[in-house]
Batch of 4 targets.
Target 1
Amino acid sequence: MEQNFGLEVLGIREPGGNIISEKIRELLLDAANQGITSRTEALLYAAARSQVVEEVISPALQAGKIVLADRYMDSTIAYQGYGRGLDINFLQELNQLCTGGLKPDLTLLLDLGSEEAWPRRQKEIPDRLEKEGLTFQEKVRKGYLFLAEQEKERIKVLDARQEPEKVLQLAIRWLDEILMLHRE
């Protein structure tokens, strides 16, 4: 059951969420930019994240708002660490630097196998990362699942093979739970 806590919610996408971060997003996802090295890719994501944390996320949290982000720091570990093979410790330090240590209270991981996810995306024009193919996507998925295993209290895995309404109900349940904990 959904609770009404009377809180203001700010939704952002990441990378993105402000002018600078959106420009970096365009650069990162443009399929024409095949020459971006793995380290440069990670640094660009960190730059976009740093900008949105300082300009949008931190001020919103200080104002008492709830911030819902479509992706955040775990994506760097999954994509650039597990997908690209960059050093996980380097990426964790990079995340620490660009966020000032700001971690989410809750992360919802909508899990769907790469073989199942691929057909769902076929109607869209693939971005630079989607063009990496199924092997890359499966490495990323395994990275996310490993993170979820390591941080069970924060990262909740939702089976995205279910009907969208069921996934939404589960997401709302986890959100309600974290909001109730913060209200106590």
Target 2
Amino acid sequence: MAEDIKKMPVGAGLPEMPEEIFIAPKKVPIDWRRICYILLGLAVFFIFYAIPALPDGVDPAGKVFKLSWTGKLSLGLLLMAGIWWVFEVMPIGATAIAIGLFQVLFHLRTAKQALGDFLDPSVWFIFGSVVIGLAFSASGLTKRMAYKMLNVVGENTRFILLGTFLVIAGMTLLMAHTAVAAAIFPLLLAIHALYSESDQPTKFGKGLFIGMA
């Protein structure tokens, strides 16, 4: 019997270990408060959609202002967005997009009028600038630029500040100022992290970010 046990290979008789082990994801509790406020906002809007025309408005001079169907739904949409914003049940950006979609779905305005504000060139300009900065940071280009610049200017903080200002000034000749700020911000964080041992603000850090401005 003892000889048979010695001849058994190591691990014989034990269950095989799986190649991959999956850990069950943590259960996220349902936020019923948020759901209730979202439904409350929708209920207010559909109440305005279902009720008949509201009474006409009369100014002190006696002039009558009739409220159109579009105006009635606009009031409901305003209250719905107000509920969502006040109770912070949805991100502000998501609420803003929902307002545009509701206007298109219920024919309050045309799609070009309702969604044209979201596609304004200035909005996409800022969005593109932020994307450029994130791409610089995600690709590691900012750290490479920081190390390259430090190799050129040395470890003297005065020369580091001068080199940073020259890089920013050079980039503003080729890129928009917003894009430069979005791209240079991670670079300054990387430089500051190399010369700061704590999270407390320093004169060097203040000089870097004032120089960026």
Target 3
Amino acid sequence: MKLPKKCVVDTNVPQIANLAACHDSNSDVPEECILACIDAIDHVIRQRALVIDKGGEIFEEYRHNLSMSGQPGQGDFFLKWVHDHQWTLPKSQLVTITREDNDAYKEFPAYDGLTGFDPSDKKFVAVANAHPKNPPILQATDSKWWGWKESLAECGISVVFLCSEYVKEKYAKKISK
């Protein structure tokens, strides 16, 4: 899979990458998905491809879900890398987003097709939308995003599904209930 030159990284990408080091026996995530997330993290680090908010909201979400020690997994290493390098990224990759209330952002598209969007994920969309080039969002296993992909695309925001078959299947099971 060809990865973008610049991207926003949803927290579940490094979380899934961590499964290689700390396999969860309850997880049904396939190995190829874990490897795709590791490859994506490696790409983002090597290419300095991360687009993140200046206010640190995405970093804080990473920090609450990953280990600042940078170990034991590749996702933890990613958090340490973001911590150490976020302020040395090109200024164009640090985007201002404006929190309005309870996880609402001025930069989140006002679009009927996005009504009910997960409030905790709005920051990723706000960052992608606020950036002049609308970088894609890397997504691993959150199947809710599969249901929003067309509405997001209609707003000029693309999502790169690293585990598309897995997410598609999970989404189909979720909506069939």
Target 4
Amino acid sequence: MKLTGKVVLVTGSSQGIGQAIAIRLAQEGADVVVNYHSHPEEAEAVKAKIESLGRRSVAVGADLSSVAGTSKLIDDGVAALGKIDILVNNAGVEKNASFWDVTEHDYDLVLNTNLKGPFFATQAFVKHLQGRKAPGKIINISSVHEDLPFPHFTAYCASKGGLKMMTRNLSIELAPFGITINNIAPGAIETPINTALLHDPAKLNALLQNIPLNRLGQPGDVSSAVAFLASSDADYITGTTLVIDGGLTWNYSEQ
């Protein structure tokens, strides 16, 4: 158990990849702040699972698209569990639309959740660490689309590209404080957000032809990478992206 004594906050951890990350880090010995936006019952179920592993947990609701929401999330997590050592910026949304049809509302939703949220959650977390004079780790769940074009998801790609550059920049700025920051870039992962794809054999088969390992990733493939970056095994890694995509990025062609 490589995270014994650590407290982790995982944003967007009531379901999908975030849920898998929260449970995996608890299995590694961490106490976990579970975060949700609109499904408190799912967050409570994750909290109960973590507590069944003998770890402490709290479920905290927050609107991560606002600075006040990110600041309150950090404050509430610290108040409940005493401190936070590791921040996993996992919460994210996407909107499918041709560029000329993208609305200001949807653009703001995607950029505020995927980039503004991690930016200011990280800021509040860093201030917490500085107040304790403590080192820490930040792990952003980005996407292969921080590099890989994805037609009809331009706002999403812009948000993930911004997250990549934010990570590189902060790796330099935060290193003197003993704080590391890295991205994980998942490819096609089997989660509730991909339910429609999973039930469309033609689209699923077309996607699988672009993945050399010939399968979708599982949430556990991502959570294992997070567990590594969160541990002392990764203390000398910062400012980089770990791609978890089955080879998709280097074999992809838009149909």
